[in-house]
Design goal:
The structure holds 2 protein chains of 2 kinds. Chain A is α+β, with helices and mostly antiparallel strands. Chain A folds into 2 domains: 81 residues, Ubiquitin-like (UB roll); 66 residues, DNA polymerase, domain 1 (Orthogonal Bundle), CATH 1.10.150.120. Chain A contains 5 helices and 5 strands. A 5-stranded mixed β-sheet of chain A has the order 2-1-5-3-4, with helices on both faces. In chain A, a hairpin with a 5-residue loop joins β3 and β4. In chain A, α2 packs across α5. In chain B, α10 links the parallel β14 and β15. In chain B, α11 packs parallel to α20. By secondary structure, chain B is an alpha+beta fold. Classes of the chains: A alpha+beta, B alpha+beta.
Chain lengths: 162, 787
């Protein structure tokens, strides 16, 4: 067993984990952050995407199924459950996904929103094509992506990544 | 009738953002895999690595000895209690329905069939223990090709042989139609095998308490599942509660009674402890049912001007290794759709269901209708090319005119309404048909290596499954009704209980809109309850684009009963006769004296108090209704696709896609557009990207999302969608189904566009999916043939 220290959605965790435990299983089953789902076992679908950074650094999107919990030692993680502001105000991406009907079953949504947050951080004013290319690693089976693209462009127009 | 613009006065027709989203965008979801219970154990299944083999022995003893392992079982441990997985659709009297034990006992017939299981304290321990199970197999020959499976001397999948059934339908004199026909078109098309790939993998949890069980499953059909689990396992129906919590997509793949659901229940019963099973994606690709997989032989007889005389369809449909819940019925839904929107003198349909050593097939979005629509729409384009006439003109020459409705088709269905002229005219305009044809001619003229193709699909489909009487005639094992109940709460809030079981469709929002209009209560004051047999005790669940056209109408019926009960109680409160009251949404008031009245909230509170109800009136406004449709619903539309095909690389790019759909009246345009977008993506995916591929030994090659390439945002265009609105005449809301229309229409539109681009090169078909390699090979083959 290995000891890890990390922060998830603003709360500090210290746990003993098996070295082989995937980060996504740690998030879901040890930390109880079940808002992050699992959609595949080959890192293709992106449903398990979270934002991860060092304690003082910038957060980047990672697929939490393709990382071990021990590799996240010392990191600061934001899941979909920590994206809204304290007090419950939704992040503009959450609001945009809702208003543009960018989700149906909602299973890909946490990963899609967090991948989009990273995309806009990297490129605050993307073109439609850049949004489509930027979200290539996140699969959705319900929406045909049309409204997801709209939602991300809408959030961009509201200055999310700026 | 066609209403080009939507006028909205109430909730119905409003672009309401969904109620469901609040939990889904914040991660407060309740997927089955999220369920945690004290002492919950994890199940892992060992699956056959071979397509076809005899099981000589299974030894689970080493697995049992590992720390953390609570139990390990082989098929023999369940032999006395596991029964056979149900097939509810024995389509012919002499159909072969082989025994289908949830856990194989003596033979495996597809790679992925369950042979053993482990129950352990966590999923890692369970996975470790699986590796300690020793199974001895004797390999048997794989049976992979339908045509050779039916030949004398083929290895057998089942003792009874490889033919499950042959189903035939005929109307009109088909021989006369072909005799001396000026034009005959003969084609064979292949419908490749697909994997539905809902984003949420399947998962099951079962918790026993004494001799009662609660089972959570990522299912589309909690009500059907409860009945079937009771019948298969002997757990009495009243001691089994089935819950479909948040379900992450289905597309037909969760319209099933699975081996894993049965076994999870049996394991919980054996151990008396709560257990969970969650599949991995690769496990799901192997063992959750597949879709499509047909060989279609199509013959059309026509006059020289293109008027259709007769259509003959002879299908081979791959059942896979076993018949699951509705496996044999899926291709037969297509029997009524090959004739599509066209008039003709004669029609003949034959379908042979064939067993192979592959994963069983069953419903996948559209279930039989996409296959049929592909066949006829591809053939219509081919016929137009053969006759040298515009494919739109050929369709117009043959389709049912809007003044001819209701129209009874050659397949025996009565289409209540439609306006193919209006939908097509709108699509032509939005698409820029004439300009694109001009550009196509220029590119052909100049020998541009990137050719432009235009594909058309003027589809209709039958959905809103289904009139129970018709299902009975087709030998289906259940009815097609739906149930709804309204509970009026003392404070005037409303709970709507529905037997529809949403898994992404947005019923909580759409049903709220319907009830808000009918009862005149605010949208926000309504909550919709579903997906739990204890909360919503009656239902036929969600598939076949049936929820709004059947379940939604049941909601309307329940509302009407509430309103009538409220009239009686309001009359008592106002001390007038019920006949003297008039209803305006949300309020009963005295005719001619509208000041004198009671709102629904006031009536609800007075009913709760029950102090001053008329004699003999029960203190309840609650009502329920069960609706059985008289007919299917027939959405239709015209889709047009322009593709750019690089003749040097075979690369296909969708340049423009226009979908004009007519789904009757629209409850929520936002949701309808979303359904169309998603449907288009899956239909385009069949045309260009997806195929469940097997190697020569019967191993599935596409077990991951790296191999089974469902499209990403980068692979799809922005769609242009619009509607015409011809209300259904068969239900009080005038609505038609929309869940499958996009998928049904789009596959032939895209393939027709690919082929159209290449016709000058001599290409007449490209097998799906039209990957660059397939397209390039088709070009090379055609060049070779013409050289």
């Amino acid at each position: 067993m290995s000891k890890i220290n990390l922060t998830i959605d603003g709360v500090r965790y210290e746990d003993e984990v098996e070295p082989r435990m995937l980060l996504v299983h740690y998030l879901r089953e040890v930390a109880g952050r079940t808002g992050t789902p699992i959609g595949c076992d080959t890192s293709n679908c992106g449903a398990c995407t979270v934002l991860l950074g060092s304690a003082d650094g910038e957060q980047l999107s990672v697929k939490s199924c393709s990382m071990l919990a021990v590799q996240a030692d010392g990191s600061d993680i934001t899941t979909i459950q920590g994206l809204a502001e304290a007090g419950g105000q939704w992040h503009p991406l959450q609001q945009a996904f809702h208003e543009e009907h960018a989700l149906q079953c909602g299973y890909c949504t946490p990963g899609m929103i967090l991948a989009a947050a990273d995309l806009l951080r990297d490129n605050p004013h993307p073109t439609e094509e850049q949004v489509r290319d930027g979200l290539e690693g996140n699969l959705c089976r319900c929406t045909g992506y049309q409204n997801i693209v709209r939602a991300v462009l809408r959030a961009a127009s509201q200055g999310v990544g700026s | 009738m066609t209403a080009p613009t939507e006028t909205v006065t109430g909730e119905i027709g409003k672009r309401r953002a969904r109620k469901e989203d609040a939990r889904l965008v914040t991660g407060q979801t309740n997927w089955t895999d999220n369920i945690a219970l004290p002492g919950l154990l994890h199940v892992a299944f060992l699956r056959s690595p071979q397509a076809h083999a005899r099981i000589l022995s299974v030894d689970v003893s080493a697995a049992r000895r590992l720390p953390g392992v609570v139990a390990a079982f082989s098929g023999a441990d369940f032999a006395a209690e596991q029964g056979s997985l149900p097939c509810a659709w024995p389509v012919t009297p002499d159909i072969v329905i082989p025994a289908h034990p949830p856990m194989a006992t003596d033979e495996v017939r597809y790679g992925g069939e369950i042979v053993a299981c482990v129950v352990a304290r966590d999923r890692y321990m369970a996975a470790d223990a699986l590796e300690q199970i020793d199974v001895d197999y004797e390999s048997l020959p794989a049976v992979l090709d339908m045509e050779s499976a039916l030949t004398e001397g083929s290895p057998k999948v089942h003792e009874a042989g490889n033919k499950s059934f042959k189903w035939v339908f005929a109307n009109g004199d088909i021989e006369a139609a072909f005799r001396d026909a000026p034009v005959v078109l003969e084609r064979t098309y292949r419908q490749q095998r697909l994997i539905p790939c809902a984003m949420e993998p399947r998962a099951v949890v079962c918790a026993p308490v004494a001799d009662e069980y609660t089972l959570w499953s990522s299912t589309q059909i909690p009500h059907v599942l409860r009945v079937m689990l009771a019948l298969v396992t002997g757990v009495p129906e009243h001691k089994l509660r089935v819950i479909a919590p948040d379900v992450g997509g289905g597309f037909g793949s969760k319209l099933q009674v699975t081996a894993e659901e049965v076994l999870t229940l049996l394991i919980a019963r054996k151990l008396g402890r709560p257990v969970k099973w969650c599949e991995s994606r690769s496990e799901g690709n192997l063992s959750a049912h597949h879709g499509r997989d047909q060989l279609q032989r199509i013959k059309i007889a026509a006059e020289a001007d293109g008027r259709l005389r007769g259509l003959s369809v002879d299908l081979l449909a791959d059942m896979g290794a076993y018949l699951m819940l509705v496996t044999p019925g899926v291709p037969l839904l297509g029997a009524f759709m090959f004739n599509a929107i066209y008039k003709m003198d004669a029609y003949s349909f034959k379908c042979t269901g064939v067993f192979t050593t592959k994963t069983p097939t069953d419903a996948y979005r559209g279930a039989g209708r996409p296959e049929a629509t592909f066949g006829i729409e591809h053939a219509m384009d081919d016929l137009a090319a053969q006759l040298g006439i515009d494919p739109l003109a050929l369709r117009e020459r043959n389709w049912i005119g809007h003044s001819e409705f209701p129209y009874t088709t050659i397949a025996g269905l009565t289409y209540d309404s439609g306006n193919y002229e209006a939908a097509t005219a709108k699509a032509v305009e939005l698409f820029g048909y004439d300009d694109l044809r001009k550009e196509q001619a220029e590119r052909r003229e100049s020998g541009d290596p990137v050719q432009l193709g235009i594909g058309i699909s003027t589809y209709t489909e039958m959905c809103g499954l289904a009139p129970s009487r018709v299902l009975g005639q087709l030998a289906y094992g259940a009815g097609g009704w739906e149930h709804a109940a309204i509970r009026m709460l003392p404070t005037g809030k409303v709970e709507v209980v529905t037997g529809s079981s949403a898994h992404g469709q947005g019923h909580e929002t759409a049903w709220s809109q319907i009830v808000a209009d009918k009862l005149g209560v605010p949208f926000e004051d309504i909550r919709v309850l579903h997906g739990d047999t204890q909360v919503a005790p009656k239902g036929m669940d969600t598939y076949g684009s049936r929820s709004l056209t059947v379940g939604g109408i049941a909601v309307v019926g329940a509302c009407e009963k509430v309103i009538e009960k409220a009239r009686v109680i309001a009359a008592g409160l106002l001390e007038v006769s019920g006949d003297d009251l008039e209803w305006s949404p949300g309020r009963w008031s005295v005719r001619g004296d509208p000041e004198q009245g009671r709102s629904m909230a006031e009536i609800a509170l007075a009913t709760f108090a029950a102090h001053a109800l008329p004699d003999g009136v029960e203190p309840s406004l609650d009502s329920d209704a069960t609706y059985d449709p008289d007919n299917f619903s027939f959405p239709h539309g015209t889709h047009m696709c322009a593709t750019e095909v690089d003749t040097e690389t075979g690369q296909v790019r969708i340049r423009r896609y226009v979908a004009v759909d007519d789904v009757g009246n629209v409850v929520n345009p936002l949701i309808v557009d979303g359904q169309v977008h998603g449907g288009l993506a899956q239909g385009i995916a069949q045309a260009l990207y997806e195929e469940a591929a097997y190697d020569a030994d019967g191993n599935l090659l596409t077990t991951t999302l790296a191999d089974y390439t469902i499209p990403s945002a980068a692979d799809l265009p922005t769609f242009v969608t619009d509607r015409t609105q011809t209300p259904a005449t068969t239900n009080p809301l005038g609505v038609k189904g929309v869940g499958e229309a996009g998928t049904i229409a789009s596959t032939p539109a895209v393939v027709n566009a690919v082929v159209d681009a290449l016709r000058p090169l001599g290409v007449t078909d490209v097998e799906m999916p039209c990957t660059p390699q397939r397209v390039w090979r088709a070009i090379v083959a055609a060049r070779g043939a013409t050289a």
